[in-house]
Amino acid sequence: MSPQHDVLIVGAGPAGSAAAYWLAQHGLDVVMLEKKEFPREKTCGDGLTPRAVKQIHDMGLGDSLAKYHRYEGLRATAHGRELELQWPSHPIYPQHGYVVRRSELDTMVAYNAVKAGATLLEGHEANAPILERGFVRGAHVTAKDGTNKEITAKYVVVADGANSRFGRALGTFRTKEWPYGTAIRTYWETPRHADPWIESALDVKDRNGNPLPGYGWIFPVGDGTVNIGVGLLSTFRDFKTVNTTHLLTEYAHMIADRWEIDPSAPTCKATSGRIPMGGSVGPKSGPTYLVVGDAAGSVNPFNGEGIDYAYETARIAADILHQAISANDPAALQRYQSMLDDEYGQYFKVARLFARIIGRPAIMRELSRVGIQSRTLMEWVLRIMANLLRPDEIGPAEAAYKAAAAIVRLAPNA
Q: What are the structural domains of the chain?
């Protein structure tokens, strides 16, 4: 079987489109398969942190991004108090973020890859891998007109999201002992749609003031609406019995007056999804394929953000594939896992253990009670949880993280 393309990418979300862009920049023949058609929605808070903003700028989309709602940092709320925290300064990342609906963001990044030279096949679903003597050489595909075809390539990038049916067909699996999350969100109209802060509630309560598990978010979209959602970690007690729709409803009532929304009138039906976290999905590579983004569980357990890690893992994968093709060296793919471990391994391990700790409601309440009373402490926490630790100096946040990492290094891999 003679491969027709250099790289086939299964999925054209953040990871797939970023991989396609960087591969096309290297002058490679790359094809993306997307089972839906753009624009399409995804369950997401729509918030881009400084890490994600940098990646989008690096892909030449800074001017396109600038037309969306820019925000300056995080407003943390808990126990009747609130703190507005500016994104921390950093030598690499900007000091601001944006809120962009995923329907618009993913379309923008996918078509940017096409502009760079990649081919995008919308409405094309990859049903199963094509195997040749045990090596992945492409995919069996159903086109939007119902016809079936085979698309072959030297290498394959698996970027089909959190459920990753294609990845599972290749043998990927989630480490079930590690934390994962679930999230639900929708939109409400409000005059506060252009607020300069995204908001996170560390103590979600029902309308009677009773504490509920999980955390809430409010992301002003700047178009007359806000994205409001709740997230829940699998480490919370009774996680599987929690009705997330009810949780979102109660949170909407909790913040209704302050955010001037009608909690009974969202603009659309809520959507939800499960999110593998902390690099929990593997193996992340094979002789002729690499797994990126949510398909590899590349989501930060500290805060549930995954878009930035999708862009970053895709860029790493694209560089490795370029090396493999230009030097005719398939063994280059073996470096992918070690590069991810070097970049995220220790950080994700600390975050996974943190997720276990805050899964205990009494501890979560006490941590949030102490934290919300100290701006300095919360600024440290924001720098750590957003993975914006400075490489050029050791401040209090870096020192605190370094101490935590030293302790975690001695702990079992959990």
A: 5-69+99-176+276-347 (3.50.50.60), 180-274 (3.30.70), 360-409 (no CATH)
